[in-house]
């Protein structure tokens, strides 16, 4: 049975912890990924060695986060938010969750299709989730890159909306995720 949190003015503590932990990991991944794409140096293997386990950590945390979201009702948006804006907020959160899960799975599948092991740490690697196929590898690599750009744009929109709530509207939405109280 699902239990709903009684706190309606802010997100549950597990949701807030997961949000900020994942924000740091996802931003690190975006920078690491950009570094991997833009480099032709010997640093690529080092970056990839970080990218793979962080991606799997994000996948695991995202699945936990979905469970927390389903078991703890988020606080409502302010009543004066226009319906279209409220719908966009809900849709963007669904897409954020989808990408937090899809990106690591696509990366794992891409590595599997390329015949590359996903090494989590020395001596521990994940099993391949798709058969070795260089054509599939190429398609998944392109998809992973395109979704990374979309994810980055969505994150910028999310950050922009958070700052509007914090600095312009001052309506408590930002504080609901930081856990702070409005003055």
UniProtKB/TrEMBL annotation:
Cofactor requirements of the protein: heme b
Domain of life: Bacteria
Pfam families assigned to the protein according to its UniProt record, in alphabetical order: Ni_hydr_CYTB
Membrane-spanning ranges: 17-37, 49-68, 88-107, 146-168
InterPro entries according to UniProt: Cyt_b561_bac/Ni-Hgenase, Cytochrome_b561_oxidase, Di-haem_cyt_TM
Subcellular location: Cell membrane
Main location: membrane
Key words of the record: Cell membrane, Electron transport, Heme, Iron, Membrane, Metal-binding, Transmembrane, Transmembrane helix, Transport
Start and end residues of each Cytochrome b561 bacterial/Ni-hydrogenase domain: 10-179
Family (UniProt): Belongs to the cytochrome b561 family.
PANTHER family the record matches: BLL0291 PROTEIN (PTHR30529:SF6), CYTOCHROME B561 (PTHR30529)
Protein's name in the database: Cytochrome b561
Species of origin: Paraburkholderia terricola
């Amino acid at each position: 049975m699902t239990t709903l949190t009684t706190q309606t003015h802010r997100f549950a503590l597990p949701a807030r912890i997961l949000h900020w932990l994942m924000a740091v990991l996802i931003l690190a991944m975006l920078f690491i990924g950009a570094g991997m794409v833009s480099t032709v140096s010997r640093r690529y293997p080092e970056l990839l060695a970080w990218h793979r386990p962080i991606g799997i950590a994000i996948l695991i945390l995202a699945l936990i986060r979905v469970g927390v979201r389903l078991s703890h009702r988020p606080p409502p948006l302010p009543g004066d938010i226009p319906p279209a804006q409220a719908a966009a907020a809900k849709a963007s959160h669904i897409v954020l969750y989808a990408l937090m899960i899809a990106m690591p799975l696509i990366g794992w599948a891409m590595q599997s299709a390329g015949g590359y092991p996903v090494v989590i740490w020395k001596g521990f690697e994940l099993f391949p989730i798709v058969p070795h196929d260089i054509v599939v590898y190429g398609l998944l690599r392109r998809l992973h890159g395109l979704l990374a750009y979309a994810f980055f744009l969505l994150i910028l929109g999310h950050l922009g909306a958070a700052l509007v709530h914090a600095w312009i509207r001052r309506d408590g939405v930002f504080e609901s995720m930081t856990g702070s109280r409005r003055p």
